Each structure stands twice: as structure tokens, then as C-alpha cells.
Amino acid sequence: MEQLNLPPYDIRLKDVNGRQQIFDVLRRRYVALTPEEWVRQHFVHFLMEQKGYPKGLLCNEIELKIGEKKLRCDTVLYNKEMRPRMIIEYKAPHIALTQKVFDQISVYNMLLHVDYLVVSNGLQHYCCEMNYAQNRYTFLRAIPDYYSIV
Fold first, then answer.
1. What is the DSSP string of the chain?
2. pTM for this model (two decimals)
């Protein structure tokens, strides 16, 4: 897998029928190792180990429904009252972070109404802080530490 712009961590891989799997610390199971999953696992560990995000407040693969359509958020950060605070959308390193990616995460946010939106392809990372009172958002210079957003 490709070198990312994220700190390394103690990766747990295994081979199942000729296919590699990576351990997802949040789902507590091995999942298929895809380029997007490689980014997700590195980013989740970055949030927990470098930014102080509590493991118990992060969830991967959160299902949402709009009518009959099912959507899936890559990662959601909740507060202690289990209200969504941040949506994180991952793309494989070779996928550009275009307006289409921001449109995708915005659809999820219409349902969750979070304070922060994050997109990453493992090489580039963007974080927006939402301001609903003024109907705008601000791009932050870096992913905030957990204790700065609680």
C-alpha cells in the first residue's frame, strides 16, 4: 500500500483466502484491505493517538437513510451524549479531493447536522467548521485536537 501523509501505527494484517485484511480497531474485526480502508485505518489511529479522540466516540461505516436510499458515512465522531459532531469521508490516495467529495459529505451532513466535516485521501486532509447561524463554513488549517472541540 501507498505511503500516506499520516503517522505510522502498529498495523495488524492477515491473509484470508489470498486476500489481505486489516484490523479495524473501531469495528473490532478484520475487514478487506482496500486503498480507502488503508486511509481510514491510518486516519482513525491518527485521531486517537495524535489528536486525543476517544475510541469509544468514533464509529466506522454509519448507515444513514434518505427515504428508501441507504448511505454510509465512513467515520462519525460523537459527543458524550451520542450526538454526531464530525463526519469524516475517506478516499483512496489516487482519488482527488474534488467538489464531488465535498458534495457527498454535505449530503450526509443534511441528516446529521455536525459541527465539523473532514475529507482525506491520506495525502491531503481538509477540515471545515460549520457555522449554521451564519449559514457558512470555515476551512481550518489543521485537524483540531479533540479537547479543543468539546
1. ----SS------EEEETTEEEEEETTTTEEEE--HHHHHHHHHHHHHHHTT---GGGEEEEEEEEETTEEEEEEEEEE-TT--EEEEEEE--TTS---HHHHHHHHHHHHHH--SEEEEE-SS-EEEEEEETTTTEEEEESSPPPHHHH-
2. 0.94
Residues 147 and 150: their CA atoms lie apart, in Å, by 5
pLDDT of amino acid 8: 93
Cell of 24: 479495524
Instruction: State the cell numbers at 46.
Output: 491518527
Compute the distance between CA of residue 122 and CA of residue 133 in angstroms, rounded to an integer: 31
Looking at residue 115, which CATH number applies to its domain? 3.90.1570.30
Bridge partners of residue 19, in order along the sequence: 16
Q: What is the pLDDT along the chain (150 residues), one digit of tens a residue?
A: 889 999 999 999 999 999 999 999 999 999 999 999 999 999 999 999 999 999 999 999 988 887 888 889 999 999 999 999 999 999 999 999 999 999 999 989 999 999 999 999 999 999 999 999 999 999 999 999 999 998
- Residue 7 belongs to a domain: no
Query: How many domains are there within the chain?
Result: 1
